[in-house]
Specification:
Elements (H helix, E strand, L loop, with lengths): L15 H23 L1 H19 L5 H10 L3 H23 L1 E2 L2 E2 L9 H17 L3 H9 L3 H18 L2 H5 L9 H5 L1 H27 L19 H19 L7 H13 L8 H4 L2 H5 L6 H19 L11 H20 L4 H10 L3 H20 L9
Antiparallel strand pairs: 1-2
């Protein structure tokens, strides 16, 4: 799903050359703010965010539409692109995680308990994706690409994230396994073989389902693609995301994440309007974070980069055309979906990026539980979409 597809177009076309100049100016300004706040490494992470936004937009790399097509049509092309992304990621991540350092700097993965909160949170997230119209990465790049509907989703995504922090001690007290790393438990080579074998098995099963459903294997469209103006083949987006996640690991010492920043933004907003978020158990242990300048927060800086990068990509592609006429039922779905996305992401120790992509790339068991539960939520979500005036493929 491209960012342009998230909005309802209006008559007329904005001057794309001027927009590209504005996007470039914003990109430079953001870089200066990141560098001033935390130095060269923060500037580099902001640059990774810009490239992520460009890649997500030009490849239309979405998890939401890919899983919807898988559930509704048996179309596995988007899932297979995700498997390529994951395969490249584990080949890069596992040796570094096994060594414990990368280019002389300590690194660690996202390894979290696999249990009740992950299963419920991922289910809610999968449901929210289908109502809200995007995942975490998809919401950011769609907002940057000009989708007014997704601005609503993002606002309620942030709201759901901070509300969830009020209840996290309860959810995290529910039954769960201890954090489990395949890399630590099995060793580098067995963990790699296991993961690549599972990716190959799922890849083959998706082809089997597709052949039975359609009578043949569906092919990705052949594109006359351009690196700056797009569009990109989806496999190019898959490889780019894996490489950029690895760059994040090298620069930040941990993988790519998105939604922890949303909880921080929401908490700062609550604090500013006098809601006693500082008294919540979760935030009593995060006082330093609440005092942090957002440009000092790695996840926030990368999220800003993603949105500005997508804005630049949409302008270069001549596709930045915001639409303001969005049906009320669609706005309601965006609001409800955003709340579920934010709440679910916090319960599940992350979203489709932090828990699924980076979780599996980290060799964490919870990374495998996440997509199973999220697919179940997706199956429910696609049944609810028509009630909000949203179509399924």
């Amino acid at each position: 799903m491209s960012a342009a597809a998230c909005s309802i177009p209006v008559t007329g076309r904005l001057p794309q050359v001027r927009l590209a100049a504005v996007a470039l100016a914003l990109a430079v300004l953001g870089g200066l703010l990141a560098w001033r706040a935390a130095g060269e490494r923060q500037l580099a992470l902001y640059g990774v965010g810009l490239l992520l936004g460009l890649s997500l937009y030009h490849a239309s790399f979405g998890f939401t539409s890919a899983w919807r097509r898988l559930v509704v049509e048996g179309d596995g092309r988007g899932l297979r692109a995700q498997l390529v992304m994951l395969a490249v990621a584990v080949l890069l991540f596992f040796p570094a995680l096994a060594e414990g350092e990368l280019f002389g700097r300590p690194v660690s993965g996202f390894v979290a308990p696999a249990g009740t909160s992950v299963a419920i949170g991922a289910f809610l997230f999968g449901l929210g994706m289908q109502l809200g119209g995007g995942c975490a990465s998809g919401t950011l790049y769609a907002v940057g690409g000009g989708s007014t509907r997704m601005i609503v989703t993002l606002f309620f995504f942030i709201l759901g994230s901070v509300i969830a922090t009020a209840h996290l001690p309860f959810w995290h007290s529910l039954p769960a396994l201890e954090p489990f790393s395949f890399v630590e438990a099995l060793g580098l080579l067995p963990a790699l073989v296991l993961h690549l074998g599972l990716f190959a098995l799922i890849f083959a099963l998706s082809l089997l389902v597709e052949r039975r459903r359609h009578g043949h294997i569906l092919e990705n469209p052949r594109l006359a693609w351009h690196p700056l103006r797009g569009p990109w083949p989806i496999w190019a987006g898959a490889v780019a995301l894996a490489l950029l996640n690895f760059a994040t690991l090298a620069l930040a010492g941990r993988p790519w994440g998105i939604t922890s920043a949303f909880a921080l933004w929401g908490a700062k907003l609550f604090d500013a309007v006098g809601i006693g978020v500082r008294e919540w158990e979760w935030w009593r242990n995060q006082q330093t974070l609440l005092e942090l300048d957002l440009w000092q927060d790695i996840t926030s800086v990368m999220d800003f980069g993603i949105m500005i990068g997508a804005f630049l990509a949409a302008s270069l592609a001549g596709e930045f055309r915001p639409g303001w006429r969005v049906p009320p039922r669609v706005l309601l779905a965006a609001a409800l979906g955003g709340l579920l996305l934010g709440y679910g992401a916090r319960l599940a120790f992350g979203c489709n990026i932090g828990a699924y992509f980076s979780g599996i790339a980290s060799g964490s068991l919870h990374g495998w539980l996440w997509p199973v539960a999220a697919l179940a939520g997706t199956a429910v979500g696609v049944r609810l979409r028509p009630r909000f005036g949203l179509s399924n493929p």
